[in-house]
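Dig into this one:

. . .
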Amino acid sequence: MININKILIVFLLFVFSIGGVHAQVSSDSAESNEIREKVQEKLEEAKNKAKAYIGTITDITDTTIQIKDAQGEIQQISSNDDAMYVKTNGSSSKISLDDVAIGDYIVAMGFKNGTSVLSASRILITSVEPDLMKVTVWGKISFNDDDNMEITDKDGNVFIVNPVKGAKYFLYQDNENQSVKYSEFDDNDTAIVMGEKEDDTIDASLIQIVNKGDVDESEKSE
């Protein structure tokens, strides 16, 4: 009887130890799955952030636009059927892809796919001369008064923005790109600023508000 009891005790200890190992493996597996899911979420979030391609059109077809940016790099833009084309020349007016031509200076906003091609949902055609658009910064307005503003980009760099005489201001809202006054800009607006830069100061020729308030789906792309 004693031997049987000993055997039973050893058997029960073995069963409980196996159960503990199984529970630990299950716990580790669940933790690994959770980590993988969080990593995937971050990747999807990064992939789906809005971007802008800015430069002069060098080639154009029925579905794609090729531009050269300020650094001389070639960028490809895919225009989907729902893309909005807006010409900004003092006022703002909707146009079609047929009205866009080689040599136009554009700001294309949208999302990058798995490659470096931008799938554009909004394309702004500006009459501002490219020579006056030597730098483009996309960020959030962190301060603004009657004379200038500060904009903070996604990397935390802060720029002082001084609008030049004749600068143009636009706001994209309710599926319309509207010409607005400087006084309509607020802290936390997400903006694209284009102009000439010296150190941390930008003499801006054009300021485009992409989102009002705390909504920030942007990422700078020069």
Q: What stands out?
A: Residues 135 and 198 are 10 Å apart (CA to CA).
